[in-house]
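Can't attach files on this board, so I'm pasting raw text. These are the components:
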Amino acid sequence: MSVKEDIAQISRAAKAASNYLASASSTAKSEALLNMAVSLMENQDVLTAENSKDLDAAREKGISRAMLDRLTLTGSRITTMADGLREVSALPDPVGTIANISRRPNGLQVGKMRIPLGVIGIIYEARPNVTADAAGLCIMSGNAVILRGGSESIHSNRAIAKLLQEGLEKAGLPKEAVQLVPTTDREAVLEMLQREDEIDLIIPRGGEGLIRFVSENSRIPVIKHYKGVCHVFIDKEADIEKGISIVMNSKVQRPGVCNALETLLVDRGIAGDFLPKVAKSLANAKVELRGCAESRALLPGIKEATEEDWHAEYLDLTLAVKIVDNMDDAIAHIRQYGSLHTESIVTDNYSQAMRFIREVNSSVVMVNASTRFSDGNQLGLGAEIGISTTKLHSFGPMGVVDLTTEKFIVLGEGQIRE
Amino acid sequence: MSVKEDIAQISRAAKAASNYLASASSTAKSEALLNMAVSLMENQDVLTAENSKDLDAAREKGISRAMLDRLTLTGSRITTMADGLREVSALPDPVGTIANISRRPNGLQVGKMRIPLGVIGIIYEARPNVTADAAGLCIMSGNAVILRGGSESIHSNRAIAKLLQEGLEKAGLPKEAVQLVPTTDREAVLEMLQREDEIDLIIPRGGEGLIRFVSENSRIPVIKHYKGVCHVFIDKEADIEKGISIVMNSKVQRPGVCNALETLLVDRGIAGDFLPKVAKSLANAKVELRGCAESRALLPGIKEATEEDWHAEYLDLTLAVKIVDNMDDAIAHIRQYGSLHTESIVTDNYSQAMRFIREVNSSVVMVNASTRFSDGNQLGLGAEIGISTTKLHSFGPMGVVDLTTEKFIVLGEGQIRE
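---
Top answer:
Structure tokens for the assembled complex are below.
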């Protein structure tokens, strides 16, 4: 069978399964996820054996240590996957909730009911845990899912997907609701991106290159998340201790992730007090600073920031620093260089806090909190299928509710239009 | 200036204006719309004079009478545009509304705040009234708008857009928040569809050809609305009088629009009673029927329906009729041939009504009501920017709220992540 026919068949089977899933009870969906968790735990040996095939191939190819680490399945990582499925199985089912039924003058009752999107395509790179995490969220929200993982993790993904399908069948749900694309060449991705009659949404998870490739070639709506150039703005009325603690946590706690701080903006009115103190803590944590001319005058010895630094997502222990005139200047900088991910203001001034919240239109806007809280779990979504930094459909971290949409429902008693 | 540079400049100006609009007060936005309404009413002579240039050119080209009608601006149509702007100016402003702030275990308060999408591109055909209607909805929801109307209505559109810009300026808002693309060739559309860094959403309004062209060439999310193949299902426990009245209203009241009835599905258990009666009323209204074999046995003389008829959006006094085994069969037919627009069940049975509402996942699902209510105004949105028959972002008729999105807001007191 050609790749084209293969993807066509998978897509049609997914669409048929999605019609079934859309009406499945919360109980059946939860049960499927719990079955999956049990299967993963009971088959750790199989999973690690299959995973070691991937690891051997990866070592032969000479991939980086970081990638090798992401690829590795251990007992504890399998437990984390299983726990994730259990947590998602306990989330409230968004499907079928009805909001705001109101009565029209002619007596019609009009409201909106949540329904699944239908079929979700997930295109991802090395991490095999995405296979279970993404499938759990899609199933719980009543969607079928087509998983297309990277070639490096194909043995691990196949083993995991097989167990997920068993979990569905044991709960009386169609196994085609979770399908792994068996071929790993790019042609399969391109074919998926053309199946607009069956696939409702594409979520790419991986580097900027993957996301651009997917969004430039897709006929299907794509959730985009290019990068996270997050800012903390220290207002002139900031509490200095809170400021230091928030900057340190935002930058240092886990520098390699998208919600880590990349550029620190400091109001000129507090820079003389704040910058030397925070620079000392950052130096102790081995963070390299790159500053504007004015901040370099306060912090002798730090490197000069170039235009590139204001755009940079370092994902490392490096931080750009800029002194700004005031909040207007800070907001203008965020608009020009930000990635619409997460920005936080540190201030004790009520009006400044409210203005920042109103006027900064990134997907997550914070007052006096670490940017590291910008994550589905931390924000109370239970679990996260991805982050959207474009405004259509969802903006920011996405949970099960974001994998649904609302249809209108109209309850009448024979009304006709005049 | 080349078309490319032209569109680039318009897009960048729109983006700058959108940042201003996003923080504009409801009062300023309402005032702008009221100013626009006054200007339209005060300049009826100018508008009809410019419109007559379009009409002369159109007559020379020999366009259809229907299109000529859509193109014509009369005093009463200008009044309707002005009234539309006044109605939209009175709608509640969705921007800045905060929903569901909840407290996380660590004390962080997390909620969502509505913000405008940014810049909306409207691509439309002959109707000059879209210029004012779309601009009003975009401005009220805090967005800038780029309007690209068809060449047939260019003089009318330019005159209207000029008045709209005056209305903005009088209210202290930037006139670049409403811009009309001055060139009318397709290159301008293609250029717009590439400006993903400035334009957040494209709404095409026109025939299926236009919508396909736009969605196949766009890097920007597109609201799609291909067609409306709407169904009424007469359940075996339907009230026959209500059924006749709903079928007649859905089909005959305005057959040329997307929410008109196109296929009637009748449960076999009631077909013998129902079909001959409804056929009589339909015949009186000069509706031509095309039926399945079984319905033709009950209604001698009607044409045979082909596969094409089940797919057809007639937009005319023609109706396809099919007898189905039961609700499962009706739902299967709707899934196979429907366009996800609007479906209505006529029944007095509670369980059947609830099942139809749950299991039919079209954008508007009704019980005992005419499909003609599937319209933003009738459903209580105040006014409609368009209809989406795909599930991403919005599904069904879209009003001002659908021109916004939600960002996360996080109110902390110095929290950092453990």
